[in-house]
Fold this protein.
Amino acid sequence: LTGDDHTGILYELNGVETREYSLKKWLELKDLDGTAPSAFKIEWMTVKDGKLIVGSHGRETTDPQDSAVVKGKERMWVKEVDEDGNVTHVDWTDRYDKIREAAGLSFPGYLMHEAVLWDEQRRAWLFFPRRFSETGYDGEDNELKG
C-alpha cells in the first residue's frame, strides 16, 4: 500500500511479481471523523493488531499571523483500517500532546511526525519526528527545523 498526502487516497500496488507495476485506488480518507470534505494528509502508516494505522503529522493547524491560535486539529487524527477497508477515525490529540511533552515541548512548540512504527515485539509505539520546534509554527522557518 501507499498513500497520497494531498488526496488522502490509499492505493494498492499491483504487479510486484511481474514488475508490471500499477496502482489501484483502495480507499479515500477524509479529515477529522471522516465527514469533513477535506482530504486526510497521510504522513505515515504502520500495522498494529491486524489493522493498518494511518496518521498525519500530529501538529495543530494554527493561524498564520499568530501561531498560538489553533484553527484546526485535523492533523491530530489517525485512521484505523481493517482488511475489509472499514475505517475507524480516532482523535489522537491527547497522544500527540503527550509525545510533545515527552520531547520537552509545550504548545505552541511542535513536533511533526512522518515516520511512526508499532513495534509488535516491544508492544510500543516508536515515533521519528521530522520537525522539532520550541517556537510556534511558521511556514518559512519550518523548513529550517530539524
User: Anything to note?
Assistant: The helical segments are 93-102, 139-142.
